[in-house]
């Protein structure tokens, strides 16, 4: 009998090893795989309104590759649970009205009853057809959007929303199946631009300064006193000097922070300091998480009041009533990756930078000149790409890889092809949201072609080569300009 038991155990181990290697699971930190599944399905279902099946098919399963069939997602009344093979590495994400979804790892101090519903509905913009017809070559504008929604050879672009504002007027919009003007869509790292905007709002109110010390935990500072030199601006410009590796392969520390840590800011603050603050640029989401934690520390708290303060300072004045800004289990606003908003509301935030921080009703969201601060190139903050270099400012990317006339562009950028372009010289905002996986997302071509529709003497472009949405397993950072294998997870 003992021999039979031993033989069965050996056979089980061999079978498990075959599954582990042939499905790509060996490339993924397994709790991260179940974590992203629970979190994304929860938010995309309860916040965006997708069916769980569509949420997985568009946003999650392409990242897991063949391993996806071994990862389950079970939807409850206000939660999504995920595990591997039915019982391993279980993860749970909980939905709270107005707060969104949160991965709950511990749960002892997590209040599932909290909510903060919006007291005003989404305010839809009205298409200004007269302005569109006077300012644009309408056939060229339509063709630009047609191209954005077309699929490249092999598919994978999955454009879900395009919105174009010119001189503050809505001149074009289009949505994919099941998406409406009111649908909150995931911005991924466009959330970092919200964090910068919140900083601008708080600086304008005198609640914080960009030079404020960002890490104040006594135990952290006792271990590494030099971390006390890290400022809010260092974090927003990605020059804090912490080792927060971000490779997008599901095994890297940043993936573990997003999908396995209850207190992301505390985890990030404990990472080693490997460069003097302000001397080395490296794009890492953990820095923006620390930035939002520092801003929350300057607000009255607790978390629900902090979230209300963000609405009061940014969302409400800009009429961004679809916006959902999610938190981690410890209550830190997840300023690197977890904001959802309708495409029109993402455009409204972009328009504020064309209007020097003024909301449509005249309310000042951030101070005069803050738009110039975010557009100032961070020393060392250049990412080299096949189509050209891109520069980083303060929470925003800068420039266009191929159109010189668009070199003054400032934009929010996020994983899976999220972009909100702000073009001061043309008084133009172009937003594209989708779920692009291992394909050309078409966003830079979209901007170039919308701009060309304003300037009929310019030729349209079919694609901006070298700016495909990446394969996570290959990348050191989120928006790198390469395509990799389909196993891996985004940051």
From TrEMBL:
<feature type="region of interest" description="Disordered">
    <location>
        <begin position="464"/>
        <end position="491"/>
    </location>
</feature>
<protein>
    <submittedName>
        <fullName>Class C beta-lactamase-related serine hydrolase</fullName>
    </submittedName>
</protein>
<dbReference type="InterPro" id="IPR012338">
    <property type="entry name" value="Beta-lactam/transpept-like"/>
</dbReference>
<dbReference type="Pfam" id="PF00144">
    <property type="entry name" value="Beta-lactamase"/>
</dbReference>
<feature type="domain" description="Beta-lactamase-related">
    <location>
        <begin position="148"/>
        <end position="438"/>
    </location>
</feature>
<dbReference type="InterPro" id="IPR050789">
    <property type="entry name" value="Diverse_Enzym_Activities"/>
</dbReference>
<dbReference type="GO" id="GO:0016787">
    <property type="term" value="F:hydrolase activity"/>
</dbReference>
<keyword id="KW-0378">Hydrolase</keyword>
<dbReference type="InterPro" id="IPR001466">
    <property type="entry name" value="Beta-lactam-related"/>
</dbReference>
């Amino acid at each position: 009998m003992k021999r039979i038991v031993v033989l069965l155990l050996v056979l089980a181990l061999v079978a498990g090893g075959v599954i582990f290697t042939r499905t790509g699971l060996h490339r993924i930190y397994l709790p991260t795989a179940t974590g992203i599944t629970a979190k994304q399905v929860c938010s995309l279902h309860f916040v965006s309104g997708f069916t769980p099946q569509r949420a997985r098919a568009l946003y999650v399963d392409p990242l897991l590759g063949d391993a996806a069939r071994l990862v389950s997602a079970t939807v409850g009344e206000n939660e999504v649970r995920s595990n591997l093979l039915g019982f391993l590495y279980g993860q749970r994400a909980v939905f709270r009205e107005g707060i969104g979804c949160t991965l709950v790892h511990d749960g002892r101090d997590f209040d599932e009853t909290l909510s903060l519903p919006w007291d005003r509905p989404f305010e839809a913009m009205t298409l200004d057809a007269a302005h569109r017809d006077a300012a644009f070559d309408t056939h060229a504008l339509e063709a630009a959007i047609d191209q954005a929604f077309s699929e490249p050879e092999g598919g994978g672009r999955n454009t879900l929303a395009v919105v174009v504002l010119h001189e503050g007027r809505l001149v074009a919009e289009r949505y994919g199946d099941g998406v409406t003007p009111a649908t909150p869509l995931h911005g991924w790292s466009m959330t970092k631009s919200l964090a910068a905007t919140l900083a601008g709002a708080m600086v304008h109110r005198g609640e914080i300064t960009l030079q404020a010390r960002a890490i104040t935990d006594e135990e952290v500072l006792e271990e590494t006193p030099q971390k006390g030199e890290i400022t809010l601006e260092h974090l927003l410009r990605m020059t804090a000097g912490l080792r927060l590796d971000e490779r997008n392969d599901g095994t890297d520390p940043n993936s573990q922070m997003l999908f396995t840590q209850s207190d992301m800011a505390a985890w990030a603050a404990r990472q080693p300091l490997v460069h003097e603050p302000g001397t080395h640029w490296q794009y890492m989401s953990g820095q923006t998480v620390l930035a939002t934690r520092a801003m929350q520390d300057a607000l009255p708290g607790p978390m629900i009041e902090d979230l209300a303060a963000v609405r009061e300072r940014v969302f409400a004045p800009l009429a961004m009533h679809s916006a959902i800004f999610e938190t981690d289990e410890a209550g830190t606003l997840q300023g690197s990756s977890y904001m959802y908003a309708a495409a029109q509301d993402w455009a409204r935030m972009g328009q504020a930078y064309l209007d020097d921080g003024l909301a449509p009703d005249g309310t000042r969201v951030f101070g005069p000149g803050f738009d110039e601060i975010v557009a100032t190139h961070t020393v060392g903050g250049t990412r080299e790409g096949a189509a050209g270099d891109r520069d980083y400012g303060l929470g925003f990317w800068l420039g266009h890889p191929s159109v010189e006339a668009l070199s003054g562009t400032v934009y929010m950028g996020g994983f899976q092809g999220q972009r909100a372009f702000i073009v001061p010289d043309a008084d133009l905002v172009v937003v594209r949201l989708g779920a692009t996986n291992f394909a050309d997302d078409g966003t830079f071509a979209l901007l170039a072609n919308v701009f060309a529709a304003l300037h009929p003497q310019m030729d349209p472009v079919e694609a901006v080569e070298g700016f495909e949405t990446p394969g996570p397993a290959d990348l050191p950072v989120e928006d790198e300009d390469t395509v990799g294998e389909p196993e891996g997870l985004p940051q």
